[in-house]
Specification:
The chain is mainly α. The chain has a single domain (3-134), classed as Up-down Bundle (Four Helix Bundle (Hemerythrin (Met), subunit A)), CATH 1.20.120. The protein contains 4 helices and no strands. It has helices at residues 3-31, 49-77, 81-104, 108-134. Helix 1 (3-31) runs antiparallel to helix 2, helix 1 (3-31) packs parallel to helix 3 and helix 3 runs antiparallel to helix 4 (108-134).
Length: 135
């Protein structure tokens, strides 16, 4: 499996892991009788800070996954898979770090770190696109 395909799979699996974490958290609350299954807010703010941050980290993943796939798939289909292979795993790592920091804290330092990890992803995607376009 190429680094780019591995990163695509990893990104999708990371998003799935966050989905399953949301589902597990909510299942536990339902099984304990804390909340009815049809009473959860999609944003997670109704069950605490971690759930809200988890829901937003998950949303960040599914909002950015199509952009990631679009750029790297364009690189692969245009014959520039080597360009994507150089950076795709770094994008995945930055995504995982961004999500992890997002779930851990909303302190000002955490917000700055989250933004930095997002900036790394965006910059690398632009770099891949630019190298493919200019090649």
């Amino acid at each position: 499996m190429t680094p780019t395909l591995l990163a695509m799979l990893g990104y999708a699996l990371w998003t799935l892991l966050l989905t399953l974490t949301i589902a597990t958290t909510r299942t536990v609350l339902v099984m304990r009788g804390v909340r009815a299954a049809n009473e959860f807010s999609p944003t997670g703010e109704d069950v605490g800070g971690f759930s809200r941050r988890l829901a937003r980290a998950h949303a960040n993943c599914y909002e950015n996954l199509p952009v990631f796939i679009g750029v790297v798939l364009a690189a692969i289909l245009s014959g520039h898979s080597a360009v994507a292979d150089q950076y795709a795993l770094w994008i995945l790592y930055a995504r995982i770090f961004q999500s992890s920091v997002h779930m851990a804290s909303t302190s000002i330092l955490a917000v700055y770190l989250r933004f930095m990890f997002y900036g790394v992803q965006a910059a690398l995607l632009v770099l891949i696109a630019a190298k493919c376009f200019l090649a």
